[in-house]
Amino acid sequence: MEYREIKEKELTKELFFEFNRYQEVKECLRKVDGTWAAVKNPFTEQWRDEDYEVLIRCLKITINTGGVVFGAFLHGVLKGFASVEGVPLGKQRNYLDLSSLHVSYDLRGKKTGRRLFQMASEWARLKGAQKLYISSHSSVETQAFYRAMGCVEAKEYDKEHVAREPYDCQLEFVLERKVILYMGISLDGYIADANGNVNWLGGHDGGYTGDYGYGDFAKQVDTILMGYNTYDQVVTELSPGKWPYADKKTYVLTHKDIEDKPGISFTRESLEVLLSRLKREEGKGIWICGGASLAGQLMERNLIDEYHLTVMPVLLGKGIRLFRENQKECLLKLISAHTENGVIDCIFRKRWI
After folding, report:
1. Which strand ranges, in their side-by-side order, compose the sheet holding 332-340?
2. Is the pTM of this model over 0.85?
3. Model confidence over 325-334: pLDDT tens digits?
4. Is residue 275 classed as helix, strand or coil in its secondary structure?
């Protein structure tokens, strides 16, 4: 089975010639007196030509509005597909809509739907969504699939979905949080000079008042991970007397016995245990703030989802390197790049398909 992204030009009637949407339904879930129960509602469902025409138009709109369509192909023939919309939902705009997930009748029960769901979830996670929203068919079999994937009843119902399909079940799936390495580096890959200083961070004009994209980035994260050396540099050199990340929860990994402070936890937890726990909690992205040792451990384990680097117009020649020698290969995709006062602000994401 081949799983890949489907491009807009592929969305034709011919793509669905051997796709069989047939489903025989005997029972559906209905909420009775506030409790979900299976009720008899026998019918069969099979898409007609006009249904595929509507589907193709909708999937093209999905792609053209920033969403994605994934397909499962057996010997080049489409046997399953899933789509995620690019426009956020919810009062906090923290949902992305899993607008479709279907597997051909002859391939159900072979984990094709599970793999498509995982691909859709990963795409939404890397887009910065906190949850998937699923307005799904209420048949017992369909609901059993989504429950097995970890979906639960949505805390916030989308009114448009409910109005369009009042008998659908409104579900959500909590996504793991995105891990972002955000750091300023020299053109030759150093994060500090030979003396550990970072006074070279800046662009051509020393009086420039721009933030090199920091303001937009800061809105995407609410948790910070850093090593003790980075913490010490912040409180003694970069911002003495005022903690600059008061609106975020900070974890400092250290072997020292230090009492926690408001908003700052000093932890001896292993990196794997701490990060695994934080990724499963609800929230925004997790910022890997420093230093080189912490970043190196995460890169070695391929745990960084996004590299957001501000490249300064300076060659240091020596100092503390961000990237180690003999670093494992990690394929990346350039998401954006722009210059500001001679500084290159660029974002790369891990390539996973």
Report:
1. 264-267, 249-253, 221-227, 285-290, 179-186, 306-312, 343-350, 332-340
2. no
3. 877 888 899 9
4. helix
